[in-house]
Amino acid sequence: MDKALLDAFRATDYLVCIDDVEWAGIRIDQPLPASLQALVGVRSWGFITAWNARAQATRTPAGNLAAQRELLTALRAWPGAVIHPAIGIGRTGWSEPSLFVVGPDIATLDTLARQHEQLAYVHGHANSTARLRLLE
Questions:
Q1: pLDDT digit string, tens, across residues 17-31
Q2: Pfam family example for this protein (predicted)?
């Protein structure tokens, strides 16, 4: 992964929809906000998408939606998973619909991210620091 793409991942605002009116932001290398810590408790969590495989905006909107539905279906199959809508917003104006999921471990998230040709995702455990997980 080149430096520009890595910098873009690190500069992204990772926003999680907690309820109808409240959103919380995740920043890489910082702890989760209190509102997300309350959702996570002592479990693992991930911020993941199936949008724009390999960080390339070459897939059609319909293709991105289909991939995202597949990811959501797979996450719903995880026993006890808690899933919230989310979005990643880049500094240059791009955005990707995403999912914030509580429950699945890194091995599961790695598998799902690779299946959807993602280069990285954000993850953590309990109230630990949010980490960028590179898959390339």
A1: 999 899 999 999 999
A2: DUF3293
